[in-house]
Amino acid sequence: MLKINPYNFDPLADKAPNRTKWQEIPKHHRLPANTYSGHLDLRFHTITPVFIPSTRTSDVDKKEVQGRPGQYIRTFFRFHHNGEKPTIPGTSIKGMVRSVFEALTNSCMALYAGNYGHKNYGAATYNREKCNKEQGLCLACSVFGTTVEDKLHLQGKIMFSDAVCEPRFLETGEWILKELSAPKPERHLPFYALDGFALSSGPRGRKFYYHHNPEEVSSTPEHITKEGHNHRNVKILERLKAGATLAAKMNFQGLTKEELAALLYVIELEYRIEEVDNKKRIVRTLGHKIGMGKPLGLGSVGILVTGGTIQKGNERYRSFAPQGSTDLRAIINEFRKEAPRPSDHLRDLLSLTKYKHGVIEYPNKQRWFDVPGNETKRLGEWGEYEGKQDESSQKDSLESTISHHLDYGIILHGRIVELSPNFLIIETKDGALHQRKRVAVQGIKTKKIVKDLEVTLKGSAVYPRSMIKK
Ligand SMILES: [Zn+2]
To answer: Cys-Cys link to 52, which of 77, 135, 164, 416 (CB 3.0-4.6 A)?
Structure first.
């Protein structure tokens, strides 16, 4: 089975962003006749579970978990002012939309800024330095705004409201993400650097995380990354379910036709409406990603415009479309036709069916990074990194990966179904398979363990059945 790295890059275009002269954002009463203003009602649909971490200290339990310094317990993001309902903040939505918008429109890399970890990948050498007043603004900076060295804040032309979630869409549990640690570009240099060797050669492109199989993500009780073994983990206690819907609003003012067209394309991406038994449903081919846990498949969402108004110039009382009317859909579709289309790479990175081509997981430390000669091996063009592997080596890889995982103190009740010199696999009553390092087993002398013994164990490395049975 082909192995696919969880992230890959959309290569940068050869040419610099097409910049336009910076202009003050026009006030509403004197909007140029050839610009568009209004608002859009947006409906978000979660394709896999979503987790946006709370940043309030009262929501972050800083007590050490099982004596692991730096491991935090996190809950979902909330605001006091919306009645403590779980919320996806508008700033997160803006960031998510912007990253795709930048790639689609060959804009500067404002979100990227040339740094991964503590290393600078020389984005500036690729004409992707951030825009400023003198140089002019790329399409993304014009639409979303930009900040120049904390001195100058160029306001964007759009604003997203928060998306407030109905509590029924929240599920509670315990999931562990090895997610807070910074990316390790030193180790991944051949993956990140344009020439595969030197930071100074520039970045390989814009980084995106592939979408995972929604069913596998939804049914997996815990997620643990297969990379890194430091202690900076986060334990999450709640997340938005797959299949949740949330509403948000986007206000915009003074957008050019080109800007609005690209924006409308990026927000909705590509989908079609299918009608089955008189019921309409949306079939998506591309999706967005938001929040924490992207390498593990969390955060896949789709957006649909369900209403709003689009006005031309300052005719503020004469909208193109009354709220929710079918005219609006026709107008949006007309704009979308004018938008650039994603490159094959961007399409691949946003594809909701990428997982059908292989197993999406990080290269394993022992079987990849510690193998002599691998330090210069590059990521394949489509994110593949090892080519074909037979099943036994895949299993070895899984086992050596788990040997680095830690015991988080969750009690398991189950039956031992497989033993190896260093590991055991336990099947719990719900049919899930849990693989444990033998040294993590407490209170039991592991050399005496035999098959079919009923056991109570401590540990937490839980894998979906499909990964172990391969
Ligand atoms: Zn820019």
So the answer is: 77
